[in-house]
């Protein structure tokens, strides 16, 4: 009879033990590791072969990049797939990338992983991706890797207790039930596909749950990698803030210039008055000149250029102005 060991918790109730599958009785290396998360997931190499010794495979690695994806994911990160692949090849001594599939068909997962040297969580874990309002049918033991009893998403949502982040697993050498893909997705709330999360192995902490595509692009990757290796989050840089607010900033500056122009040269140069003049409509009495500069009517009267041509030329210049703003 296979030996039993303590102690898994569910709904804060301590059970007497978890039976070790026959295939793992003499193969503790599959689940022996000080990291409480890594020892609870079952991994395969890029060829789809199970990893039997996680401590040896992850020796020296500091970062795990979790890619929560599926065959129907949006295109947010697809442009970064090449960068992610180069990252795993060039920095394989420091990190590993693990693909966590949200697909219900193994063929879809394999299609997503074609020509990608990424690790993957095993597909054969009985993941329950069905709506929570329905009770999914349990997977047959023959469909589960090594016949293990994987923790389902329904169990996790029902209160299955996982070890705290940031500490070594106190039962490193004891067998514990592994997490299914669905349970891990629920644990990290990675409900959007794709989601990329950065896990720091030495500190046993998720340091970035929702990494951005920009962090994997070459101009930023070196900095991101160094911060992740130190267990630090990348956060937002000055260039990020500028990229997000450059258009509002430019528009604000233009509005300020327009305000001072009207103040010093008169309200007849205001946009409403220009439109009214172009269409030969009477100017509102509330828009009388307030500045000390020459009035629009005086300027146009002294000019040989028709007012309509002035406005048309201004309209023609709008595309050029838009291009200039976009280049800023």
UniProtKB/TrEMBL annotation:
Q: What species was this sequence derived from?
A: Phaffia rhodozyma
**Which Pfam families is this protein grouped with?**
Thioredoxin_8
Q: Which stretches make up the Thioredoxin-like fold domain?
A: 62-127
Q: Which UniProt keywords apply?
A: Membrane, Transmembrane, Transmembrane helix
Fetch the InterPro entries from UniProt: Thioredoxin-like_fold
Organism's domain of life?
Eukaryota
Its name, as the record gives it, is: Thioredoxin-like fold
Kindly list the residue ranges recorded as spanning the membrane: 247-265
């Amino acid at each position: 009879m296979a030996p039993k060991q303590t102690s898994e918790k569910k709904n804060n109730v301590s059970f007497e033990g978890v039976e070790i599958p026959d295939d793992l009785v003499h193969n503790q290396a599959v689940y022996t590791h000080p990291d409480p998360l890594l020892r609870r997931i079952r991994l395969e190499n890029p060829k789809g072969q199970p990893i039997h010794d996680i401590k040896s495979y992850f020796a020296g690695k500091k970062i795990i990049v979790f890619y929560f994806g599926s065959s129907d994911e949006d295109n947010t990160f697809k442009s970064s797939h090449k960068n992610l692949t180069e990252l795993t090849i060039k920095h394989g001594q420091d990190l590993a990338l693990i693909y966590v599939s949200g697909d219900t068909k193994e063929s879809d997962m394999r299609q997503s992983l074609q020509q990608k040297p990424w690790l993957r969580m095993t597909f054969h874990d009985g993941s329950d991706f069905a709506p929570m309002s329905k009770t999914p049918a349990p997977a047959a033991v023959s469909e589960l890797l090594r016949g293990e009893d994987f923790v389902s998403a329904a169990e996790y949502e029902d209160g299955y207790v996982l070890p705290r982040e940031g500490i070594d697993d106190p039962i490193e050498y004891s067998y514990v039930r592994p997490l299914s893909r669905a349970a891990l997705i629920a644990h990290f709330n990675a409900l959007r596909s794709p989601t990329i999360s950065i896990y720091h192995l030495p500190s046993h902490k998720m340091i970035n749950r929702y990494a951005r595509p920009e962090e994997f692009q070459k101009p930023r990757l070196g900095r991101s990698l160094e911060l992740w290796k130190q267990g630090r989050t990348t956060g937002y840089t000055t260039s990020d803030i500028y990229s997000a607010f450059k258009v509002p900033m430019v528009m604000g500056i233009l509005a300020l210039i327009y305000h001072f122009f009207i103040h010093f040269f008169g309200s007849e140069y205001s946009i409403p008055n220009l439109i009214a003049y172009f269409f030969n409509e009477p100017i509102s009495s509330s828009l009388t000149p307030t500045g000390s500069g020459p009035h629009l009517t005086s300027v146009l009267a002294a000019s040989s250029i028709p007012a309509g041509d002035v406005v048309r030329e201004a309209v023609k210049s709008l595309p050029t102005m838009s291009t200039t703003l976009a280049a800023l």
